[in-house]
């Protein structure tokens, strides 16, 4: 029987633990936080304690594979004993993209092409459609499908003269804020976030969230100042810091594009009920984590709302399985 250690105690670890069969024995879970001592009845140890266990493999149950792999290697875990469960973040893609970029530079002298082309656009790394006409993003930042979808929706909104501001509900460190800032340079962007993690009420009331204490520790490593410092132009950004929907006071505002990345069922439902009526005809709402396996509450809220209002859901194959809602002229 395989004896394993599992690095992580979050949502990914929950999924992994639920799928294990009788061929393995879990010895312990690993977490760097000294305050986390138990998970599903198993001890939670620190990376420094790994050497005290006779294990077959250490499974990384997190999207931050490379950062956690580095920790394991530093604590003497052999490379061949490290196994990754998933890549929930873009680390693996970005590493691959960088290696591919170097290959194209060396093989096809792309650095030379950059010198002779009358353009400051970076040439594509992995996706040839990066050079399609009217592409708004010269560089892939994190999630190609989500970024390109946003770019083309921005073009459609401009083509159709759809009026309204832009809003992001759930900002964290501003990865998608940067994308929106580039895609909508001429529109006001409202940023709604606590900037200190999930609201405890939303986590505790979400019946889909089993590992509530871990969720309450997430998304705290951010600040308004950090997010704004990442933007090319923050002049049109209006920060609404605090608990949504309490911070919503834009009762006469109309919106052309709104990103919802709130994860918790009640918060997502509040956003749909409050924001959707204020989406201009021809506008869009993009909801992250619709098909993510770790935030089922998002999908439940979206489906319940859209079924009631007879709204079609366009499922996107981006990194987090987003849902796109399109406002028809006669939709409420």
Which tags fit this structure?
alpha/beta, 13 strands, Rossmann fold, seven-stranded mixed β-sheet, 11 helices, 33% helix, 332 residues, 3 domains
In words, what does this structure look like?
- The protein has helices at 11-19, 65-74, 91-108, 110-116, 144-159, 175-183, 200-205, 212-216, 224-229, 265-275, 296-309, and strands at residues 2-7, 24-30, 38-39, 42-45, 57-60, 82-84, 165-169, 189-193, 237-241, 255-260, 279-287, 314-315, 323-326.
- A hairpin with a 2-residue loop joins strand 3 and strand 4.
- The strands form two sheets. The chain has a seven-stranded mixed beta sheet with strand order 9-8-7-10-11-13-12, sandwiched between helices. Strands 3-4-2-1-5-6 form a six-stranded mixed beta sheet, covered by helices on one side.
- 35% of the residues are buried.
- The chain folds into three domains: 2-84, NAD(P)-binding Rossmann-like Domain (Rossmann fold, 3-Layer(aba) Sandwich), CATH 3.40.50.720; 90-125, no CATH class; 128-326, 3-Layer(aba) Sandwich (Rossmann fold), CATH 3.40.50.150.
- The longest helix has 18 residues, at 91-108.
- The chain is an alpha/beta fold and 332 residues long.
- Helix 5 runs parallel beside helix 6 and helix 10 runs parallel beside helix 11 (296-309).
